[in-house]
Amino acid sequence: MLFCDFLTDWLEVHKMNIEGITYCGYKLILKQVYPYFKKLRVTLDDLSPLHIQNYYAAKLKKLSSNTVLKHHALIRSALAYARKMNLIKENVTDLVEKPKKQKFIGNFYNQEEIGRLLSILKDSPIETPVMLSIYFGLRRSEILGVKWDAIDLVNRTLIINHKVVPVSGDGKYRLEESDTLKTDSSYRAMPLNDHLCNYLLDLKKKQEADKKFCGNRYNKKYDGYMCVNKLGRLILPNYIRKQFKRLLESNRMRVIRFHDLRHSCASLLLHLGYNMKDIQMWLGHGDIGTTMNIYAHIKVLSKKIFLTG
User: Fold this and answer.
1) Quick check: 93 and 72 in contact, CB under 8 A?
2) Element holding 158 (H helix, E strand)
3) CB 192 within 8 A of CB 158
4) Which of 49, 94, 109, 216 supports an S-S bond with 113, CB 3.0-4.6 Å?
């Protein structure tokens, strides 16, 4: 069997054990891996560490080392399966020099900038997603997955237990709903203060009014979700990203990624005196090492740039 054909077969077998978004990501990687090894006509039996090393070297001329590391992860997982099935004697990826991971340098807003963002946010079409990201540091998939039945105004809590992720593959685009979050720590209860409770009550009234006004034109598919537009349609991830950038530029604010609001939330919690364990639980990190890395990154940027009182 050619190695490239084995990879295709492995992915179809592996499909049942992974989420749709992961499968689509693997498919995109395979589109680059397959033709390279197809041209070599190398079989699974004859695959050597040099074949893999040469592939990495070729891809590093065009792709970042972090991207090539994803290719490495796919190939290594596929060969681990082949080893388990006694199709090969060893996993040759264990013998190669994998690319070094590039440390991503993110960004964040300080307390003053967060305050200004909140002041220009009112009545924006992405007001709710941004609010949820600023106050709770939610992942984008968690924000889109927030439902009204996760809100308990009596006990003043927001339960994070659902997500919506964009999945694209085979020329099609869809939103995938799931109760399976990234880590066990992702399931958490967030506290609601007076401001958020009042905001959510007003938002619920507006959405009920939109339903009555639109009548049959109102989209019932995402009825019960919080982040919908006036027609009841779920706010799409790309729309949030583009509108957020446009909002910052039009108000002459320093442009950061939407995901950087998650880091901004962490920086604000640090400034308010929360410890690492509290922040880990707040952000839903499965490993406190992730929280510590963010802290170290924020600390370095704070000294260089802008952390204010």
Assistant:
1) yes
2) strand 157-160
3) yes
4) 109
Reading across the β-sheet that carries 151-152, which strands appear in turn?
Answer: 151-152, 157-160, 188-191
Is residue 24 within 8 A of residue 11, CB to CB? The reply is no
CB within 8 Å of 173: residues ≥ 6 apart: 166, 167
- Tokens for 285? 């990190």
Gyration radius of the chain over CA positions: 23
Pairing state between β 188-191 and 172-178: unpaired
Q: pLDDT band for position 302 (50/70/90)?
A: low
pLDDT of 53 above 80 = yes
Contacts of 290 (CB under 8 A, 6+ apart): 280
User: What does the angle CA 199 – CA 200 – CA 201 come to, to the nearest 5 degrees?
Assistant: 95
SS3 content of the chain, % helix, strand, coil (to 5): 60, 10, 35
Hey, what amino acid is at 196? L
Over range 220-239, report the average pLDDT.
94
For residue 54 the two structure tokens come to 């040469």
- Whether the pTM exceeds 0.90: the reply is no
Spatial separation of the C-alpha atoms in residues 100 and 41, rounded to whole Å: 28
Write out the two tokens for 89. 């004697």
